[in-house]
Write a structure and sequence with these properties.
Elements lengths: L12 H9 L16 E2 L4 E3 L8 E6 L3 E6 L3 H10 L11 E9 L3 E4 L10 H13 L2 E5 H7 L14 E5 L10 H4 L5 E6 L15 E4 L11 H10 L4 E6 L1 H9 L5 E7 L6 E3 L17 E6 L2 E7 L9
Parallel strand pairs: 5-11, 5-12, 7-8, 7-11, 8-9, 9-10
Antiparallel strand pairs: 1-2, 2-3, 3-4, 6-13, 12-15, 14-15
């Protein structure tokens, strides 16, 4: 059982120990109010006074960590949502992608306004995902439109390494991901265009990528994940935008796909997922999922690595 994460943040000791036992080194990012159980040496969780049913966490090789037993509903939901991040294995990276959208599948208006499609609780979730992952990935469009910092301002925990995919090296050098020093920024670009003189980051922080292996649009994202894994970045959060997430999914690079749906109708606007369609409804992908409340929104957490998923 690992207990080396106590130096990070203000989350309760019981919660940190529980997540540390699952290998979560950034456990301080999780909310302390969810902790109700202290982990024992046998791996079971001791319930507080008044609770009679035991609770535990269990590793399943086919589906990762599971919370079992008498969990408080909110705590169990948090464990179900965040424990899969503990499933990263040494031989390959684990990637989680997220999109926030309206009930009619739009991530922004036609003019590109996306602040804010989703509730504040989902914004906190994004910051928590950044803190729990080693790297956060966005496309050039997200940087150009939103100029994000990609930090963990709303939760405890370390800032992730920022990874920007800018195939044509078109982004301005004064974007905040390149100028603000909270965390390192890596830049992934088309390998045929890699040029230290044009890159806004140092040559050692530039990742040159080949075209997509299947002949599709974009760069080979499997090569990108392998390069990040080689740098010790084993858990990767693909935060946006819609085209970037769609390409990660289409290339089979996503383990879990999170889509947070807000009760708002945008109408004409920018679409979220953009994937090849099936000829018949019976052929459409139906990966297993879990639902989680994010204030007024609902987060769908899909397991794309499950057997039978065409995107796994």
């Amino acid at each position: 059982m690992r207990t080396d994460d106590g130096r990070r943040g203000s989350a309760s000791l019981a919660w940190r120990l529980c997540l540390a036992a699952a290998g979560m080194r950034r456990a301080s990012a999780l909310p302390s109010h969810a902790a109700r159980y202290a982990l024992g040496r046998d791996g079971r969780l001791a319930a507080p006074a008044g609770d009679t049913q035991p609770a535990s966490i269990e590793w399943r090789p086919d589906s990762g960590w599971h919370a079992l037993g008498a969990w408080q509903r909110e705590a169990r939901s948090l464990f179900d949502l965040y424990l899969p991040l503990c499933a990263a294995r040494p031989h390959r990276p684990l990637a989680v992608a997220h999109l926030g959208q309206s009930i009619d599948g739009r991530i922004a208006t036609e003019a590109g306004d996306s602040r804010y499609v989703n509730a504040h609780e989902n914004l906190v979730h994004l910051h928590r995902m950044r803190a729990l992952c080693d790297a956060v990935v966005v496309g050039a469009g997200t940087v150009a439109h939103d100029d994000p910092r990609l930090t963990t301002r709303l939760v405890s925990g370390e800032h992730p390494v920022r990874v920007v995919i800018d195939p044509q090296l078109r982004l301005a050098r004064d974007a905040r991901v390149f100028t603000e020093p909270e965390s390192k920024t890596l830049l992934a670009c088309d390998g045929t265009l890699a040029d230290p003189a044009r890159s806004p980051v140092d040559a050692g922080d530039t990742i040159a990528l080949p075209a997509a292996a299947d002949g599709g649009a974009g760069l080979d994202l499997r090569v990108l994940l392998a390069a990040l894994h080689a740098r010790g970045l084993r858990v990767v959060f693909v935060e946006g935008g819609g085209l970037t997430v769609s390409r990660f999914v289409a290339q089979g690079c996503v383990d879990r796909l999170q889509i947070t749906v807000a009760p708002v109708i945008v109408g004409a606007g920018r679409a979220g997922l953009q994937l090849p369609g099936a000829a018949a409804m019976r052929d459409c992908a139906r990966p297993p999922y879990r639902l989680h409340r994010m204030g007024s929104d609902v987060l769908w957490d899909f397991d794309l690595r499950a057997s039978g998923s065409p995107w796994g």
